Here is the input.
Amino acid sequence: MIDIEQHTSDDYVIEIANLKKTFNGKPVLKDISLKIKRSENVVVLGKSGIGKSVLIKCIVGLIQPDSGSLKVFGKDVLDMNSRDLNDLRTKVGFIFQGNALYDSMTVRENLEFPLRRNKIIKDTKLINELILDVLDNVGLLEAIDKMPSELSGGMKKRIGLARTLILKPEIILYDEPTTGLDPLTSREISNLIVKIQKKYNATSIIITHDLNCAKITSNRMLILHDGIFKAKGSFDELKNSDNKWVRSFFEMA
Amino acid sequence: MQNSSDSDGLNKFLIELGGLSRFTVQFFRELFRPPYEHKEFLKQAYQIGLSTLPLISITAFIMGLVLTLQSKPVMAEFGAESWLPGMVSVSIVREIGPVITALICAGKIGSGIGAELGSMRVTEQIDAMDVSGTNPMNYLVVTRVLATTFMIPILVFYADAVSFYGSYLAVNLQGFTSFPLFMSLAFDPLHFYDLIPATIKTFFFGFAIGIIGCYKGYYSEKGTEGVGRAANSAVVISSLVIFIMDLIAVQLADLLNIFMR
Ligand SMILES: Nc1ncnc2c1ncn2[C@@H]1O[C@H](COP(=O)(O)OP(=O)(O)OP(=O)(O)O)[C@@H](O)[C@H]1O
Ligand SMILES: [Mg+2]
Here is the structure.
């Protein structure tokens, strides 16, 4: 019994089956099934407002799906109590589309917030080392005592990433990590995502409209449309697909 | 079920009331559940005091002054000028101090909490807290509601004191009453069955300001417009609730008076 659980959780870190979500009578997710292996980067493409953010919010329990099953590390997210959900959330990092930095706190306080609150580490010196390390990773050591309002869009994105990385998550869900950035910074962030995948052995879902980012980061790609995954494959497979509609996603750039 | 605007309005009101009740129940459930965020509580309490002190000082001082000046000619007509401090002190302690202070706080703190939590909701900071393993209900809501519940009674005491001082100055604009004499005249008609209900109701005022501000902010609609509306309706609803609570408190205090005398 334990053996089997171990086995499945090793094989697939995230298992989603027949997930449905309707908002005010409007179906957003109709029938979503997806399995992701450890340290795999999956990129999700899709038009604006199609439900990409809703999908990854379901995974961390921010949105309750109407039906379907949703397992992370082999455990069912949908019947977790709040303590299990908390445990899960310390292992799953979430990069918000709008950064969601706490704007009443400095960068340092933003970064130490999840650490101190979960009582994972209490030692101030150690916390300080971790903060410096993670800021170094995203290349923003000089921003440590700034307020979020003093940062540029790209810097905010990186601090948001740093705040997630500091908990050393095993799964990272990126909601449009490069949107609104110049091509150069976008590429830096994309490379950073790959670096994180290698360094922490992290599993990721990356939502993006940025094809360069998709190309750099993806091991596998999915296109969400009308509440289901309409197309799956590697970047090159989808780019050279026989289907004109699929190819149209790649002609924008 | 037809879409008449009347039943729509009633529906909305009932939904709001249900939402607020559920929110209040949730608050009490989180209240006793660790972690206890004393640091955040103290920070909020400090900010409440700091942000309202100037406004409350000026308003309370003027209230005491004006109330005394206005009542003076009437009292003089009856030759009852020595009752002036007592009459003013009773109306300040029972009604004017608590209600004016609570209304100022509803305007200043209620809207502040509504706007702060509203913008945190809209920019997904509340969700971010949630996914980083911190219960935002515990960290944001419980601390703020406790802070208003305990700070508003303190601010009311302070406002009463400042009002007394304003009244003392007004009495002394013409003629002379020494401060000790003024105080003894002011406290003479005050009984503990004036003080106790007046103090108890201020805790309820504080609680109402906190919970309504948090509720409107926590469930703010998306967009900057939603944040504005959250702040605005936090003020309107909590002011209204303060008046309703005061009405009930006056009735209960009267009952208490009848039994105690
Ligand atoms: N909490 C919610 N309540 C009601 N409707 C919602 C909620 N969250 C999302 N929706 C609706 O679900 C749909 C999908 O939203 P979602 O944010 O997932 O889009 P998206 O694919 O992430 O788009 P974008 O690329 O613009 O971020 C939208 O129509 C949105 O209005
Ligand atoms: Mg989105």
Notes: The pocket of adenosine-5'-triphosphate (ligand 1) is lined by residues A 23, 28, 46, 48-54, 97 (CB under 6 Å). Residues 141 and 214 of chain B are 6 Å apart (CA to CA).
